[in-house]
Amino acid sequence: MRYISTRGQAPALNFEDVLLAGLASDGGLYVPENLPRFTVEEIASWAGLPYHELAFRVMRPFVAGSIEDADFKRILEETYGVFAHKAVAPLTQLGANEWVLELFQGPTLAFKDFALQLLGRLLDHVLTKRGERVVIMGATSGDTGSAAIEGCKACDNVDIFIMHPHNRVSEVQRRQMTTILGDNIHNIAIEGNFDDCQEMVKASFADQGFLKGTRLVAVNSINWARIMAQIVYYFHAALQLGAPHRSVAFSVPTGNFGDIFAGYLARNMGLPINQLIVATNRNDILHRFMSGNRYDKDTLHASLSPSMDIMVSSNFERLLFDLHGRNGAAVSALMDAFKATGKLAVEEDRWTEARRLFDSLAVDDEGTCATIAAVHAETGYLLDPHTAIGVKAARECRRSLALPMVVLGTAHPVKFPEAVEKAGIDAVPQLPAHLADLFQREERCTVLANDLKTVQDFVSAHGNRGKPL
Ligand SMILES: Cc1ncc(COP(=O)(O)O)c(C=O)c1O
Ligand SMILES: N[C@@H](CCOP(=O)(O)O)C(=O)O
């Protein structure tokens, strides 16, 4: 499998090189040159497989030629073996034909574990084979950071730098990152917002002089391997609900557009998905695009669903690439114009094409709390604020009551006690046993100004097991 850039100018890479990358050298994102497509018979034959075996079948075409089958099988079994639930991603029924896919059974209690526990193991495998050390720089609004640190903490060949917006992640999220101590783990609180952190990661890929020759790797969803691993659970959920002989709809709490883009790819690989709902909080640039063809930058607001406090949505570019007939020059021109003006719209027929599959809704904090409270009263089930936004959007935007609607349960409510309390629910859940002493653990974190050079100087001063590069 070869991977090409959405901007058409960077060299094509194989899976191993795309895993060890981030943004392409032309500023674009890597996508598979040709997407595998499975037949109805093939998909049907996967019903009932354990999660890691399904994962092998769905992802094998993407890694073939770079990772040996036997190694990949072993890595997948190890990755999903650490999840708390034996189904890995259990489905819980909320209402009539309405389900939550619990993606928070991994070690850091959010959907990021599905890709990042795998990414850490794949990096370890490839870097050990090559005898190469790398630096990772990642931006997090709360969940990617802890999952990436957990996934990479045992990798001898990695120094990982995670930037989060200072005071804009929940306390549980912050402690999940800052209490993992190791001389190759570096938490940075940036005096800015998530977009500032993400922009610094992207700018660092464009100019890597500060790394003095050490390779830079991404753990955010700009890294193709993140998206690849997230495709699997769409198959896992849909197969349990009658696919491929029946269509299924998904409502996806959305920020960087990575998770829902994985659903879009699952559909293009043959899974019958009839609707994808983009569920955002009040940071609603994607809802404004889906509902009115306006992708215009706005002020980034802090909300009760902090992981989705994102404005510039990385993976939207991957959708634009497909909407423009995979024409890199057209995407490059659009992205240049967006950088200059902060605004983007596409031709009417391309937007109509997107609307055939996607619907959207923006839900404010009040609507989020009301949904947590209503679902708790109806069923006793406690939603986290991100999943609550997905449920609200599913209920408002659903096209067919006859088809199953699956809401991606992207995080465990224990990570967001503030939203649970604001929803009027007293019984805030307990941290699971492996995190029970989280509030007693020592924290290590450096606060830095919202300034690229300051951050890059910090990375070059600590990028070799805490010592200078
Ligand atoms: C809990 C949670 N829900 C939803 C999202 C949005 O996912 P995506 O950025 O892939 O759109 C995120 C972070 O990205 C998250 O951490
Ligand atoms: N919500 C994310 C933001 C980063 O998104 P990513 O999927 O591109 O890593 C987070 O929790 O950090």
UniProtKB/TrEMBL annotation:
Residues 2-80 form the Threonine synthase N-terminal domain. GO terms for molecular function: pyridoxal phosphate binding; threonine synthase activity. Keywords: Amino-acid biosynthesis, Lyase, Pyridoxal phosphate, Threonine biosynthesis. The modification N6-(pyridoxal phosphate)lysine is found at residue 112. Pfam families: PALP, THR4_C, Thr_synth_N. It is an enzyme of class 4 (lyase). It catalyses: O-phospho-L-homoserine + H2O = L-threonine + phosphate. Its cofactor is pyridoxal 5'-phosphate. This is Threonine synthase.
